Q: What sequence folds into this?
C-alpha cells in the first residue's frame, strides 16, 4: 500500500514512518519545505509523482499559545490545507485519515466526549482544527477523522520531555492539577492508524466518519508529571523530587485550555479492534527510550 503522509517530521509522523517499514507499507513523507500544504501546486506535484492509495494528514500547527497571535498561519495549516487535501482525495477517489484534537471541545461536559458531541473550541488552535474537520467532512465521504489528546513521544517537543528536562534543572516543579485528560503515546496512535490503514488496503468495509483514540485512563498534567518523575527515580536518574500541584489560575497562558477533555474511545475499539494500552505503561516505554538514547547518567 502506498501512503502519502503529511507532517512526517512531527511526533506522530516520525512513529508512522518507523512502524510502516515493519509493516511493508510504502510511505512518502515530504518535508514542509518540499510540499507547502497551502499551495495546491505543491500537493499536485507529489500526488502525480507518487499516486497514493491513502493520505494521512498528520500535519498541524500545534503551538497552542502562539496560535493566539498567529491566527492566519494557524488557519492556513489547520483548516485551509485539510480542505485542499480532502478535495484532491475526492477528485482521485481515495480515502483520507485526518488527525484532530480534543481542543475542539470546551471541557465543560464533565464526562467523556463522544464523537458527535457539539464542538465548542476555546481558542484559535481549537477553532482552526474544528474548521479543518468541517472542511474534510464537506469535501470527502471517504474520510476518517481521528481526534486524539495530550500526545507525547520520544521525539519532538512534548510535555513528557519537558518534565524530564526541567527535573534536571530545578529543585521543584509546579504543575497544573485541574486540567484532566488522557495522555496518548504517538507510538500507540501510530500502531492504531496503521491497523486501520491495513483495513482500508484490504478493502474491508467499515463506517467512515469521526473516531477518538487516546491512551487508556485519565489523569491531570500533575498526575502525568508525577508518573514521569517516579520513573526517573526508579531508573536511578534522581534521588527524589518536589512536585507541587497548582491551579490553572496560578499558571495563566494566552490560550484557554479545556478543563476536562477526556475522549470516549469505544467506537474505534469496537470498529477496528485497536489496542489502547494504559497510559502509565506507555509513558514508561517513552521515558525508557529517552533514557536509553541519552546514555548512562
A:
Amino acid at each position: 500500500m502506498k501512503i502519502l503522509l503529511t507532517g512526517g517530521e512531527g511526533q506522530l509522523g516520525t512513529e508512522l514512518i518507523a512502524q510502516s517499514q515493519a509493516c511493508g507499507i510504502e510511505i512518502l513523507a515530504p518535508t514542509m519545505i518540499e510540499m507547502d500544504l497551502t499551495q495546491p501546486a505543491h500537493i499536485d506535484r507529489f500526488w502525480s509523482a507518487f499516486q497514493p492509495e491513502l493520505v494521512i494528514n498528520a500535519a498541524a500547527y500545534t503551538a497552542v499559545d502562539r496560535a493566539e497571535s498567529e491566527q492566519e498561519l494557524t488557519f492556513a495549516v489547520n483548516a485551509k490545507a485539510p480542505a485542499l487535501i480532502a478535495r484532491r482525495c475526492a477528485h482521485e477517489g481515495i480515502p483520507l485519515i485526518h488527525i484532530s484534537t480534543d481542543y475542539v471541545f470546551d471541557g465543560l461536559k464533565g464526562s467523556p466526549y463522544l464523537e458527535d458531541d457539539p464542538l465548542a473550541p476555546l481558542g484559535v488552535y481549537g477553532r482552526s482544527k474544528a474548521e479543518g474537520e468541517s472542511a474534510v467532512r464537506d469535501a470527502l465521504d471517504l474520510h476518517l477523522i481521528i481526534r486524539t489528546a495530550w500526545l507525547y513521544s520520544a521525539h519532538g517537543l512534548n510535555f513528557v520531555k519537558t518534565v524530564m528536562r526541567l527535573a534536571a534543572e530545578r529543585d521543584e516543579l509546579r504543575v497544573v492539577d485541574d486540567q484532566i485528560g488522557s495522555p496518548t503515546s504517538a507510538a500507540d496512535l501510530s500502531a492504531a492508524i496503521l491497523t486501520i490503514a491495513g483495513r482500508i488496503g484490504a478493502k474491508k468495509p467499515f463506517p467512515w466518519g469521526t473516531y477518538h483514540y487516546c491512551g487508556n485512563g485519565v489523569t491531570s498534567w500533575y498526575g502525568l508529571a508525577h508518573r514521569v518523575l517516579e520513573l526517573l527515580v526508579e531508573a536511578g536518574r534522581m534521588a527524589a523530587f518536589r512536585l507541587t500541584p497548582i491551579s490553572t489560575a496560578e499558571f495563566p497562558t494566552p490560550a484557554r485550555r479545556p478543563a476536562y477533555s477526556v475522549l470516549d474511545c469505544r467506537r474505534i475499539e469496537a470498529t477496528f479492534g485497536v489496542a489502547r494500552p494504559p497510559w502509565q505503561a506507555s509513558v514508561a516505554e517513552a521515558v525508557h527510550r529517552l533514557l536509553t538514547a541519552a546514555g548512562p547518567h
